[in-house]
Design goal:
It is built from 5 helices and 8 strands. The chain has helices at 7-15, 58-66, 98-108, 111-120, 144-165, and strands at residues 20-24, 35-39, 41-42, 49-54, 68-75, 81-93, 128-133, 137-142.
């Protein structure tokens, strides 16, 4: 069994600015796997997840059709950790609120980059929409405890080897 994160830790982990991987069912053909794409997302502990996309994108069409999606975020540094959530779409903001778009840019970019990005992509405001999802199911793993056990075991083995060399 994977070492799960406590409730507060998983909320903080998901709220940190990480790239998410969104997954949504793709019913366009029998041989298609779910659509899985990296996304910027917004989240505050206890709240909803928000993702932005173009109104006419494949992602938007599939999200509307499925009415739900999954999001997985991870820390690729050791010790590895991840949070995966799944739940229903609770609302679609069409068009996206400029404040939502600005918050997402500021979440992932430094202030100057966010300002430049928003200016360079301002035309997207008329084409972008935002999907909100209420996390319903959570899957988490935090390998910190394993890493600590391995570090302790390695230190013990090194001490034993040094003692035997004397």
């Amino acid at each position: 069994m994977l070492p799960a994160m406590p409730h507060d830790a998983r909320e903080r982990f998901l709220a940190a600015p990480r790239i998410g991987v969104l997954g949504v069912t793709d019913p366009r053909g029998g041989d298609r796997a779910p659509l899985v794409v990296p996304v910027w997302y917004g989240y505050e502990p206890g709240g909803e997840i928000v993702v932005e996309t173009g109104r006419e994108t494949v992602k938007a069409r599939l999200l509307r059709a499925a009415g739900r999606f999954s999001l997985c975020v991870q820390d690729e540094r050791r010790p590895y950790r991840y949070v995966s959530v799944e739940g229903p779409v609770t609302s679609v903001e069409d068009p996206v609120d400029p404040a939502v778009r600005e918050a997402l840019a500021q979440r992932y970019l430094d202030p100057g980059e966010a300002r430049d990005y928003l200016a360079a992509t301002s035309d997207q405001l008329k084409d972008d929409i935002a999907f909100r999802m209420r996390p319903q199911r959570w899957r988490t793993a935090d390998f910190s405890a394993f890493a600590a056990d391995f570090a302790d075991a390695g230190a013990d083995a090194a001490a034993d080897a040094a003692a035997e060399a004397c």
